Amino acid sequence: MTEIKQEFLKCMRCGNCQAVCPIYKETKMEAEVARGKIQLIKGVTEGVLKPTEYLAEKIATCLTCLACQENCPSGVNYEKILLYGRDYLAKENGLPPVKKAIFKVLRKPRLFNFGLKMASRFQGLALKKVKGRPGRKLRFGLLEDHENRLLPEFSKETLVEKARSKQTSGKEKLLYFPGCMINNVYVNVGEAVIAVLQHNGAQVVVPEKQSCCGTPARVHGDIESAKSLGRYVIDTYLAMDADYVITSCSTCGVTLRQGYVELFADEPEYLEKAKKLAQKTRDINEYLVEKGFIRPKKLNLKVTYHDPCHLNRKLKVNKQPREILKVVLGENFREMKKPAVCCGGAGSFSLTHYPLSKAIGKKKALDIIETGAEVVATSCPGCMLQLNDALAKEGSNIKVLHVAELLAEGYKEN
After folding, report:
1. Which CATH architecture describes the domain 159-288?
2. Mind listing the pLDDT tens digit for each residue in 219-231?
3. Are 378 and 402 in contact (CB under 8 A)?
4. What architecture (CATH level 2) is domain 1-93?
């Protein structure tokens, strides 16, 4: 509590957070910008305000893009305050029944993976295919406000299943942590990651025991579920000897590199394990540039790049993807005006606040379209989901690809 109080005191209420907050730019509500949320959290945790549903909703209306934290002249750790506030509200009010049920399933990886497998087999009952688009749309208006949303298609085979036939030897042994989205939805991204790493002489292993990294539970205040999943991931990946652990999802990467160390600060045994895993973990862009990668044949494509918020602001991985893309594309790489502005996806935020998410996504889509690019590359499956939907709504045929997919394509051309 003392640390949080110090963070409260740092805030000068200058309003610099307003200038960069994507949500504030849409709603113009003080309670939905960092400065306002800090005051709400301070008030409710000090007993001045009641933990009402309205207050909880305002604290939930955040992308956690951390543009405010990056732009704060006082160095306020807004993320720490936000998580503290959400933890407090989860204890006081309890989690909503739907979230509680989801996180309960998440804590049981075998059950969760079975559920996703069933979803892949029966998705046609609730989701219809969209001609010429990489995804599906809901049937029968099943979710309010989501009728025309383009959603990704579940893969019939998981990455774990496909990776069994791709085992090779190599100069370095790499364990790949694909995360839920790449293991079950964007499997093609995972295959590209494996192909790229193998092309560069590495042995790549995808452990059979896969689970969520725990971030969805953590950001909503379910610390116990987050810890349960964290222990599962840590134990799974440390049990297998490897030189590095590779991620290709920005949120998963931040969790393995930083999140677990913070989460287990009060558990000495797992804190040490978390530190060990963090030291071994690298985002694929980071690993390739750090180690040096084989130059591919240049692709004749006009490509721009969108910075995933967590990869850019938390892991500071922003130059590396561009270095790779410039090697793959040469002069065909082009920057958009605001590549680091959040796309509005933010994981479950786009489910619980879709109209707001859609409005933010529209601005990103127009920024992408203005570049004249044929492809927008990024390094996060959550951003891919959001960008596909946003571009489809603008009637654009610009493809959304992971950086690893473009590099893998370049290697095919060699």
Report:
1. Up-down Bundle (1.20)
2. 999 999 999 999 9
3. yes
4. Orthogonal Bundle (1.10)
